[in-house]
Amino acid sequence: MSQTKRSRSNQSRLFQGEYKSDLSLLASELKKKLDLLQPPTEITNIKTACDDLNIDYKDTCADGVCPQKVLPESLDKRIEQLAFRPNLQVPQTYSDAITDMATAISGYYDIILVSAFSSNHYKEAQILLEYIERTRQLGLQQRYGPLGAPNPYHTLTQMFGYFGDSPCAHMAFPQVETGFGIYHKEPLVQHAILDPWYACAVRAACICPVEQRSVQICGRFKGSKKIGLCMRNEQSGISIILAKLFREKYRAIVVRADSFQKAMREHKYPYFDELRNMSKLGYS
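^ thats the sequence. predicted structure below, dont judge the formating
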């Protein structure tokens, strides 16, 4: 069997339901990622509560079930709360729609690129492709602004509740942005990141629990004693997911916007030349 066919066969097996049903396998993949990740700084104030920040908010319990006040350290718990939570399963109708779109792509491709780079910007545009190689190892790269608000300021409390959390459990995590993101096709990313994000997106109670126009404008958050000032929908959702999964190493999988938005004409990066040279040397 060729290496390509073997890889394809293994990948197909990994995306089967049997893989998702084995929590320990996904937790093992998460551990590998966490061991590899080297954030500039680890997030250490995870247990900081709203009361510690004088935030005017109190959690409420329903039918004896209270929201989670601290994100779990246990890797099994992290996976369980994202990949196995009943209300974060993708409805079959939407799952079928994604499958139909995927089957419309014939052949097997390692990377698919669609771009509108003009010839005079060809070299500096390739600096963005450097993140593809990084994503192969890390699993994903998500853009964020270094001055972004802690996620609870720009997310309604209902969304946190949908994930089973208190918004106060997320005060240490800045909200990421969705103008730029790369996601590697692998079981951990599929089942613990993209599936719950998708599942939230197709349910109004999660993605848009109130009339959006009433919460569209965020305003100033610094110094505010209130959270849930506005709703950033898909940004809010992916920020919750990444915080729950990567926790203390959250900053290792987010990319500062200014690291690629300031690519200038003189910043040449011969990405494709490097790939060709690696191929000649026998690297794949």
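Residues 187-201 form the longest helix (15 residues).
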